[in-house]
Amino acid sequence: FQQELSIYYLDSILSFPSDPSVILASHQKFTFVSRLLFEVYRLNNFTDAPGVTIFAPCDDAFSDLQRTYPEWFKYLNSTEDGFVKLRYILLAHIGSGVLYLDQIPMNKIVVLDSVLDGQKLDVLAINNSQIKTVTVNSVPVVIPDIIASNGPIHGIGGILIPVQA
Question: Which of 68, 71, 52, 48 is nearest to 60 (CA)?
Answer without folding.
Answer: 68
